[in-house]
Amino acid sequence: MEAPFILWNFLPLIKTSSHYHQPIQTVRLSVGGVGTPDACWKRKIHFTFEDETELVEEYDVKTQCLLTRKWKKKTTLGGDGKWDFEVGEPPTLLNPLDEITEANTNPRFSRSDTAKAFQWRIRNMPYPLDTYQIQVDNDMNSLILRTTNKKYYKRFDIPDMQRMNLPLKQDALSLSHANNTLLISYTKPDEILQYEKQLKQHLSSVKSLDESQGDCKTS
């Protein structure tokens, strides 16, 4: 069960660009997740904006690392839109009627951060490490990943940096590769680390209405 909505007065940085200039009091918060198998190790924060845009964030209870951040906006006709994952990835839906499932060899791009770095994993990338090149596009304040064999190209950004109007820096980037997976890391600047520290302090004091009645058992 979710707690009643309350005003969230200190989070101007969680807003998308379309919400960035709205008064912060248009953001409401609920905390939920109690009673689910994941509730014992996940903390779920559910924001609803004045225009009915929704934001859900999930945190690891022990590490306080962000596991999921997803947005949902109303369609032009007023219906529910699809969840757009900024951090994490949607669950894989399998068709039980498919007797033969073709192996998915297409690259799979997802973001999964650590305490000190923004990180992205691209699975099904078999090429050696020296095949990959990543650079900052200063004009667009975005990142460009390409391969020297011209098999893969992707432009992406870091919404957290954009929301704080922070420029990207080339020396913050690093690449590693193992098990057909390319790992891209961007070291978080001090401004991000300080903001996340303050945010976690606030979130740790927010409790669900039924948090004490959950199914989690402590030893």
Automatic annotation (TrEMBL):
InterPro entries according to UniProt: DPCD
Pfam family, one: DPCD
Family matches, as PANTHER family: PROTEIN DPCD (PTHR31921:SF1)
Family the entry assigns: Belongs to the DPCD family.
Protein name: Protein DPCD
Species per Swiss-Prot/TrEMBL record: Opisthorchis felineus
Lineage: Eukaryota, Metazoa, Spiralia, Lophotrochozoa, Platyhelminthes
